[in-house]
Amino acid sequence: MHLESLTEAYQASLAFLLGRIDYERALNVPYGEGAFRLERMRRLLALLGDPQTGLPIIHVAGTKGKGSTSAMIAAALSAAGYRTGLYTSPHLERLEERFTVDGRLCGENEFVSLVDELRLAVAEMEQGSDPDHLPTYFELTTAAALLHFRRRQVDAAVVEVGMGGRLDSTNVCLPRVAVITSISFDHTKQLGNTLAAIAREKAGIIKSGVPVVSGVTADEPAREIESISSLRGAELIRLGREFDFVYRPPTANAECLGGSIDYFCRVDRARERRGVELGLLGRHQGANAAVCLAVLDELRRQGWSLPDAAVRRALAEVRWPARVEVVDRRPTVVLDAAHNVASVAALAETLRENFTARRRILVFATTQDKDAAGMLRLLLADFDHVILTRYENNPRGLDAGELAALAARLTDAPVQLCASPAEAWRAVQALAEEDDLVCITGSFFIAAEMRVQWRSHPLPKHAPVGQPLFF
């Protein structure tokens, strides 16, 4: 295909997907069988030849940590020689980031071909259907991922839940292992306002006889997961019970960026591993890595060949954008997609534990249905200057003036309002000096838009090559 026509076809394919109902951009997200219909997803997949059938899937749910854990599992499977698909959401810059094979995005030609096949299926569904029975944006991207994995003949697919679990479009698969990384408060309007209710929705991915690895340690949600696992005859492998870990943060001279863990298996000491180095920074990533290792142990028990050396190499080398991601140094610039109280708490702990700075500058924007006050309450005490803004490419952004009113009650630090991410980045450029720390957080969407600003308008380089990232 000619370059110009390929570009046009690619843009048309994007427009086709973006023209569907998109709950990632909706101001009010309904929940329940009326809006989220697994039968609609099954119908779509049937028209595509049921690409999920026979695909060895690891299905990952959780309030936080599910993306990082999915990335770790996928990296380990790839390192062990399995061709591995990874489906995650949302994306930061390109939609194709959502479905990769061995870490590689599909090309534009492949993307156009996938969407062409989706178009045919949607056209079939449109015959005599009312709009409520037509697939959403997320359902179509899920289908595209499964279709891509079948075309690439992957040996395994790691599939991250979008929201909840029970009614999520990914919940049409029969996985080899189900994973629930954590339970905390998020999407409470849709999933419930208690940890038990949220746990019930997440545990909707548990299937009869399919083993479950759980990183949930709080009593209330853990009991729900135990109850549902027992009801469905699914073996439950629990953090703090069947396996555990000890985390060690990186030192100034450490080669590993994220520190290391010792992993303990209480049912088989032969599975224990000491000094497993991590590529992702933070104590919470230690927990995610432990869950990953428990999943891999379960796959070994099912007959998968996963050499320890390959697993260790994968966990040391894995990178995952916008998860305490250091994109610059002197000044240090950290991008993080934390968007609820639990993930912000993990970010704040990681910043305190691993970074020193003369002055700390926060850039914050978030989404209308999030606990903005709770997030700011955790962050503001640790920052000397605060820049509040609103992301532009999604209508769900919370007005910066509303954030300022919240911040005024929580901090005496200088607070600066910026109308856009571009203006916020110019403020960073004017403020930040080489010994400062800049942290950008509050949403995937602000992380994505500020990443574009950072790349397009880089800060002056003060650090020589080889300068340590931390301390």
Share of helical residues: 25-40%
The largest sheet has its strands arranged as 4-3-2-5-1-6-7-8
Shape: globular
Query: The CATH topology of the largest domain is what?
Result: UDP-N-acetylmuramoyl-L-alanine:D-glutamate ligase
Largest sheet: 8 strands, mixed
CATH C-level class of the largest domain = Alpha Beta
Low-confidence spans: 463-471
Measure the end-to-end span. Answer: 50 Å
CATH architecture of the largest domain: 3-Layer(aba) Sandwich
What does the oligomeric state look like here?
single chain
Number of strands: 17
The rounded Rg comes to 22 Å
Structural class by sheet pairing and helices: alpha/beta
Please tally the helical runs, counting DSSP H or I stretches of 4 or more residues: 15
